[in-house]
């Protein structure tokens, strides 16, 4: 009986991780890029990020120079003891980070986020368009 889980899909993903390291989810020194969905609605953009195993107190959402950054960290304290030892580990531990370039039609002060059941939803409201649909005649001097 094997105690190390094995399935063909994870082997398939591992093949691509090694063959094409530039498209891996893990980048650099243990920083993981979470899976996200980005939705555009009439009045706002929504960024939905999966952050399993992360506590709300360990999440930071910032917006600086029209770049929205989601950062989080997760640490599991599963120390090996005399009675049990870790023989296989797949769950991620460490820093999680993802950044998004935002358009000019947002106000960073209006951004808000909700976190429930390991899912972070960041709502980025759009500013009202100041453009009118009317043509503007420019005088030539």
TrEMBL record:
<keyword id="KW-0346">Stress response</keyword>
<protein>
    <submittedName>
        <fullName>18 kDa heat shock protein</fullName>
    </submittedName>
</protein>
<dbReference type="InterPro" id="IPR002068">
    <property type="entry name" value="A-crystallin/Hsp20_dom"/>
</dbReference>
<comment type="similarity">
    <text>Belongs to the small heat shock protein (HSP20) family.</text>
</comment>
<dbReference type="InterPro" id="IPR008978">
    <property type="entry name" value="HSP20-like_chaperone"/>
</dbReference>
<dbReference type="Pfam" id="PF00011">
    <property type="entry name" value="HSP20"/>
</dbReference>
<dbReference type="InterPro" id="IPR031107">
    <property type="entry name" value="Small_HSP"/>
</dbReference>
<feature type="domain" description="SHSP">
    <location>
        <begin position="27"/>
        <end position="141"/>
    </location>
</feature>
